[in-house]
């Protein structure tokens, strides 16, 4: 089945897809798209700040780059989760140790993508905080909103990493996901404190 | 310190062999990109055009009025030779089926090469941080860890470097 590019999907269709459950977008895809919304808002505020902030264009370029990075993850995370579900469904096949190893591998792969979403979302939150502090005053509240949305996306994605790596609580990926979530939360606080 | 285009052309005119080599090196990828990406020439045709372009540059460099404008001059020469190549190899095909000179694609190629050259003139620290973020898609955390910098400072650092890059590009475009 061809993978869906969520950039080309109508928002209403995406939301409808969320209501259907697997196969289709789920929580991690929604987190990726939320991060993309946040990145778009950061782009908007940075562009509106071009007259008052010399480095606004650079911030806008980064936000566009992060948006381009995170949207494909909405697709790949759905595909990876479907593969993990299939592995769960076929868990009766083969020897028990082999089954467990295969299942763990599928689940680990399905955790790799939420980790990428968490890290991208953390970067979007960090960038949003910079834009909230240095951008045009009229639009700073939009940058703060972007930081909060990105922090939520990072937190949700870190949760998926934790769930998918449930048997490996000391995993480096989980630590990175939690660190990203924490960094995003700090950035959101900074952005909210930046004021109008 | 890299020679400017005008300085390079000046040395070529004086018969400096190393300057000629440097000129070919500087513009070879550019010419090839126009042939392959702009006009979608086959590999053999692109190589033929490539040879023709630099032969003509060698023969006609004295006719170039503005040494600093060597890049657009080479681009124009390449475009003309690409069209000649397409026409000569496609006599049996209707004209409209010839691979078009995609002005948008060629403009993109020219912009990409301009950015690449401007990037090469930035401080190494800037080149590295921009390459890591935009070409390698590294996160601020990864970049910070590699460069021993706090992740929270990377976004501002990238913005500053992009500003320098823009100034570099604007400087190149001034008459």
Task: Please supply descriptive tags for the structure shown above.
heterodimer, A: Four Helix Bundle (Hemerythrin (Met), subunit A), B: mainly alpha, Rna Polymerase Sigma Factor, Chain: A, 0% strand, globular
Summarize the structure.
With about 200 residues, chain A is mainly α.
Set down the secondary structure blueprint.
The complex is a heterodimer of chains A (196) and B (175).
Chain A: H1 11-20, H2 27-48, H3 56-89, H4 96-134, H5 140-164, H6 172-193
Helix pairs in contact in A: 2-3, 2-4, 2-5, 3-4, 4-5, 4-6, 5-6
Chain B: H1 5-13, H2 17-38, H3 43-60, H4 70-89, H5 103-120, H6 124-135, H7 140-147, H8 154-173
Description of the structure:
The complex is a heterodimer of chains A (196) and B (175). Chain A contains 6 helices and no strands. Chain A is mainly alpha-helical and 196 residues long. Chain A has a single domain (24-193), classed as Up-down Bundle (Four Helix Bundle (Hemerythrin (Met), subunit A)), CATH 1.20.120.680. In chain A, helix 2 runs parallel beside helix 4 (96-134). The N and C termini of chain A lie far apart (47 Å). The mean pLDDT of chain A is 87. Chain B has 2 domains: 1-121, RNA polymerase sigma factor, region 2, helix turn helix motif (Rna Polymerase Sigma Factor, Chain: A); 123-175. Chain B has 8 helices and no strands. Classes of the chains: A mainly alpha (196), B mainly alpha (175). The A-B interface holds A 54-55, 57-59, 61-62, 65, 69, 119-120, 122-123, 126-127, 130, 176, 179-180, 183, 187 and B 133-134, 137, 139-141, 151-152, 154-156, 158-163, 166.
Number of helices of chain A: 6
* SSE run of chain B: HHHHHHHH
Q: Can you give the mean pLDDT of chain B?
A: 85
The rounded Rg of chain A comes to 18 Å
Reported for the largest beta sheet of chain A, the result is: none
Shape assignment of chain A? elongated
The number of domains of chain A: 1
Intertermini distance of chain A: 47 Å
State mean pLDDT of chain A (0 to 100 scale): 87
Helix-strand category of chain A: mainly alpha
CATH architecture of chain A: Up-down Bundle
Radius of gyration of chain B: 20 Å
């Amino acid at each position: 089945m061809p993978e869906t590019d969520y950039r080309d999907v109508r928002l209403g269709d995406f939301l409808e897809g969320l209501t259907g459950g697997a196969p289709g977008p789920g929580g991690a895809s929604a987190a990726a798209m939320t991060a993309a919304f946040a990145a778009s808002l950061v782009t908007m505020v940075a562009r509106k700040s071009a007259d008052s902030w010399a480095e606004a264009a650079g911030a806008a370029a980064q936000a566009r780059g992060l948006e381009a990075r995170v949207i494909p993850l909405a697709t790949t995370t759905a595909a990876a989760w479907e593969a993990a579900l299939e592995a769960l469904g076929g868990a009766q096949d083969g020897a028990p140790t082999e089954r467990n190893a295969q299942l763990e591998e599928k689940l680990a792969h399905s955790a790799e993508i939420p980790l990428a979403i968490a890290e991208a979302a953390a970067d979007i939150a960090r960038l949003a905080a910079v834009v909230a502090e240095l951008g045009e005053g009229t639009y700073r509240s939009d940058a703060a909103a972007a930081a909060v949305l990105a922090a939520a996306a990072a937190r949700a994605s870190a949760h998926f990493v934790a769930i998918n790596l449930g048997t490996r609580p000391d995993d480096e990926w989980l630590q990175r996901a939690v660190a990203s979530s924490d960094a995003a939360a700090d950035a959101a606080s900074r952005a909210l404190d930046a004021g109008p | 310190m890299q020679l400017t285009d005008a300085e390079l052309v000046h040395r070529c005119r004086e018969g400096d062999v190393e300057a000629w080599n440097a000129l070919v090196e500087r513009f070879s990828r550019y010419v090839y990109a126009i042939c392959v990406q702009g006009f979608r020439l086959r590999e053999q045709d692109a190589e033929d055009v490539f040879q023709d372009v630099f032969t003509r540059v060698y023969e006609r460099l004295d006719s170039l009025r503005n040494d600093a404008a060597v890049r657009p001059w080479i681009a124009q020469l390449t475009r003309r030779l690409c069209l000649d190549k397409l026409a000569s190899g496609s006599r049996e095909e209707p004209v409209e089926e010839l691979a078009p000179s995609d002005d948008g694609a060629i403009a993109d190629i020219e912009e990409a090469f301009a950015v690449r050259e401007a990037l090469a003139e930035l401080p190494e620290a800037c080149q590295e941080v921009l390459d890591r973020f935009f070409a390698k898609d590294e996160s601020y955390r990864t970049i910070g860890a590699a460069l021993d910098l706090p992740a929270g400072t990377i976004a501002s650092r990238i913005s500053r470097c992009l500003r320098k890059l823009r100034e570099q590009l604007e400087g190149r475009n001034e008459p």
